[in-house]
């Protein structure tokens, strides 16, 4: 589809950004004095710029018939909302009877003559009165002006000077000589100014209507607003004028709403260069609306809406409708003039920036443009400028932040800023209906180049991020009052770092669990950790993250010492350490929860919140509490061990979404799966690893303590694992055990007999008939370096293992598989983990479609948080 400015060519002054307010300001007095915009005072230009609407042609034809045949309405009232085209209609009547015969081919003149069924316009006198130009204190009255314009001021001079309305006979004598057209504009404004003789103005109006009605060759056309902005007294006078004219009036509406599309095209554009492209563009949008009909207002599905789109091009009908229905409800907004002026500024801005959209939607209006912004703010107040700046257009506006969070595609299409703009543009009204529904916003934003799911996604984020956007009863609107997001932000900033730290530690305590024999939370000194044989998990303070320079020295000190003494049982310690980046996420969420809890605890504030906001607070507290376990597990993801005397870092990775594991359960499972902690060992391991090659006898205590002391051996949870291996080895004939004078070999050893005083005999009393060949678990294949039992300290570090022979390999490996959800762990364990263990870099794509009820916490918090933390490129995310 072509850009709008390649099809609908704007006027030159719009293209060059040289808009003059006067081109939109119809003023009958300026026309009479031959001043002001050329489009109004030069007949040829006026007829070219005026679209012959049905209402305007009917009005002109009715006046022509009355002045030609004496039939029809003698008194015509034009009553429309402020700026509804009334003055333009009076200027049309003026030019028609002054210059119409010379411009019969102009569409407005041609249609009028055809409707009136005449060929030539009659010669008539034209009397005019413009209430806003007349001086009620020192100037001539309306009757004085009429007499002066007819050259018969002497007839009513005394009435004029004394501000007394003339009688009906004097008025008849003034008007009956020739056909007369009387045009009275802004009469209500004059009546307000003429407060000391307002009653005489009312009497004059009543007498004038009676006289005109009685004269077949006279017509009175008067304009009255539907309301007045000048207070209660002006409203009373307006109602009185309506009663006076009400007995004889015929009300005409010069411009119907849909006809305004033609007016816009006539006034703002030179030409439509490619009508075929207009139809093509409209058809593409209409087909889009049909495919997503259930998400849009019902009106968008009808054939008539397609026709409205064609007529409104290059604007979307919603742009005009929102101006016509919402902004025109303000008494300060001039319906025709205001719409044309604002749309002219919009066109000029979009053309200058070359916004190459096929159709101009409400989301494309640039609120950062000063002229556009001021056109709107003059009706709602300049205080909303700060709302626009902070939430929509500013460099650090919340809508911009939402786009950065959602990704480059959202930024490229300005999805969040566009939606916020549409809400601001369409949410204000002086009437009852404020705000826009989600369906209306989709209509303001949907376009072929944009994935429709992005609109709902961005709207959801705007609701939770913007400070002045309110969402109540299904409607979105901006207000000066800060919303719950702003209140949360203020409470958030009041939470101190110390309070966050305490809350994080409480969360860790809550989710530490007891899956490991002894859990040591937040040790700060080496003597905080006892030197015992039991397996211990030390959870470092949040401040001691993996990336902190002094963390490794803190760990080394705890492994090496217990206070001032050397630590004996070093192979019983596992440490869990936080990741700085993911800890920050946990801290932010904890701080947010504390902010919501403070709101709920603030009784005075709580009373001011709506029921909807209270429900949001309760729901957010619940969601944040529900997502806390995942964030704690995700933050504390680094395991520190001592292997072969050296610090060995292992990563637990990102936890599974929805997991209910505790910290200690997760660590235990990890070290068991990686064969760092063994539930059982083989007799062969004892022979190969726990007995020196030159020793024939070793005490059971030295053997068991070896697994608690020396870090090249796997960890065991308790001595029972070692004792069971010794019992098994004796029974299988791998070695013997001597207890006192009694030796056990190839027979069960009673558990109560297997004490620390017992001795394992590498050479049994009787040689075995066959060599035992016990099966060893793959997990027991550890370093063959023996340990010298009985030495106070292990001999470390160990020599590096011999380099394995090179194995055959492939240069490229690509795999496409489909795996059921129940086998995801096996995929990680058997495919991805081995690839990573070989130091290989690879990338894999996940296409996930979940059927069934998925919890919102999981879909809205846990999964996006995980994807964000692992820096995943998310191409599409849809939720229903």
Q: Summary?
A:
The protein is α/β, with parallel strands linked by helices. The chain is built from 39 helices and 22 strands. The strands form seven sheets. Strands 10-11-14-15-16 form a five-stranded mixed β-sheet, covered by helices on one side.
Write the layout of secondary structure elements.
Elements: H1 4-7, E1 8-10, H2 12-15, H3 28-32, H4 38-41, H5 43-49, H6 54-69, E2 75-80, H7 86-99, H8 107-116, E3 125-130, H9 142-149, H10 153-161, H11 168-175, E4 180-185, H12 187-193, H13 198-214, E5 218-225, H14 232-246, H15 260-268, E6 269-272, H16 275-291, H17 303-312, H18 317-325, H19 335-352, H20 370-380, H21 384-393, H22 398-406, H23 408-413, H24 415-427, E7 436-437, H25 438-445, H26 452-465, E8 469-472, E9 475-478, H27 484-494, H28 497-511, E10 518-521, E11 536-539, H29 551-560, E12 561-562, E13 565-566, E14 573-577, H30 580-601, H31 603-608, H32 611-626, H33 628-635, E15 638-643, E16 646-651, H34 663-673, E17 677-678, H35 683-690, E18 697-699, H36 700-709, E19 715-716, H37 719-732, E20 736-739, E21 742-744, E22 759-761, H38 824-837, H39 856-869
Parallel strand pairs: 2-5, 3-4, 4-5, 10-11, 11-14, 17-19
Antiparallel strand pairs: 1-6, 7-9, 8-9, 12-13, 14-15, 15-16, 18-22, 20-21, 20-22
Helix pairs in contact: 6-7, 6-8, 9-10, 11-13, 12-14, 13-14, 15-19, 16-17, 19-20, 21-24, 22-24, 22-26, 24-26, 27-30, 28-30, 28-33, 30-32, 30-33
